[in-house]
Each structure stands twice: as structure tokens, then as C-alpha cells.
Amino acid sequence: MAGTPRMTLTATVLDAPDAHALAAFYRRLLGWATEREEPGWVTLRAPGGGPGLSFQTEPAYARPVWPAAPGDQQMMTHLDIEVDDLDAAGAHAVTTGATPAGYQPQDDVRVYLDPAGHPFCLWVR
């Protein structure tokens, strides 16, 4: 067998009932620019480069429950976002449209839900 083919992670994709609305939320939250936008699809990219964050409209999208119980729609992925000030970043997240999750498992991490219900974590090192 030949060597491993080159593979580059280009983006994480989040499904949503409205890709453009969810991308607008993350654009406000992260301050990232739109790299690509078309019907049902948006890709954001960090100013310094690296993998992007994409959003895809999914008509059958089911909002995840966090923390999930048996029979609930499970989250399939979540974003970890390192911040330097947990309180200031949390206030910013709420201002941009996030909702604090009802369950907070750690003191140095805050869990929020984006407008489509995807959990994401703000954390300090």
C-alpha cells in the first residue's frame, strides 16, 4: 500500500433549520468572516486561517437536548471555545443570541445553546 493520502480538515458542519440564520449568530459570536454563501449553505473562516465552520440547512433538523436523557435527540458534536474572561465571553454570547444551558457541569466551563439548540462550551485554561 502506498503512503497515506494527504487529508486536510477544512470545516466542521452544523445542520440547522436555517443555515443563514445560524451562520449570522456565529459571525456575531466569533467575529469571523463569511467565506462562502449559497442557498442552504454558509462557511465562516477565522481571520488567522485554519478550519472553518459551515452551516447547512436541514429541513428534518431535530434540536438536540442537553444533557440528553434516554429517548432524547442526542447532540452529535459541540464546539469548545477558549476565552480569556468567562463572564465577559458569556455576556457576549447571550447578547449575540445564545442561551445559557440549565445544567453547568464545571466551574471553569460554561455551556450555552446556540439559536438552533447546539450546545457549545466557553472555557478558560
Order of helices and strands: EHEEEEHEEE
Number of helices: 2
The share of residues in helices is 10-25%
Low-confidence blocks of residues: none
> In percent, how much strand structure appears in the residues?
25-35%
CATH superfamily membership of the largest domain: 2,3-Dihydroxybiphenyl 1,2-Dioxygenase, domain 1
Mean pLDDT: 94
**What's the Cα radius of gyration?**
16 Å
The geometry reads as globular
Strand order of the largest sheet: 1-4-3-2
Secondary structure tally: strands? 8
Q: Give a quick account of the main beta sheet: strands, pairing sense, barrel closure.
A: 4 strands, mixed
Total number of domains: 2
What's the CATH architecture of the largest domain? Roll
| CATH-assigned fold name of the largest domain | 2,3-Dihydroxybiphenyl 1,2-Dioxygenase, domain 1
CATH class of the largest domain: Alpha Beta
InterPro entries: Glyas_Bleomycin-R_OHBP_Dase, Glyoxalase_6, VOC_core
Organism: Streptosporangium fragile
Pfam families: Glyoxalase_6 (PF18029)
Protein name: VOC family protein
Summarize the structure.
With 125 residues, the protein is α/β, with parallel strands linked by helices.
